[in-house]
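Backbones bend. Our protein:
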Amino acid sequence: MDTLFVFSHLRWDFVFQRPQQLMSRLAQHYRIFFIEEPLFATGAKALWQANDVLPQLTVWRQPATAALSTAPMKPAKGAKGGNAGKSGNALTPATRRSCWHR
């Protein structure tokens, strides 16, 4: 059986929307790993949690500590352009998660 890895900014448990509907139907033919973006919470342990919502569909969630969401990020060595390296313009949690498909 083929496997699909789905990266989503939506929480599986929030509201049953189009992604949940499609993944539920595709789970009849594929093994699906639905990976949510990290959930920032105070005092959370950064361990992956897996929840089998259907026989072939597993939702993966990684809690992250609040310290990770507020710590400023430094630009990569040799990075050019943008304001990330200027004082007071550190990357925010919203820009840090921009690699997630929206």
Q: What stands out?
A: The chain has one domain: 3-96. Residues 83-89, 94-102 have pLDDT under 50 and may be disordered.
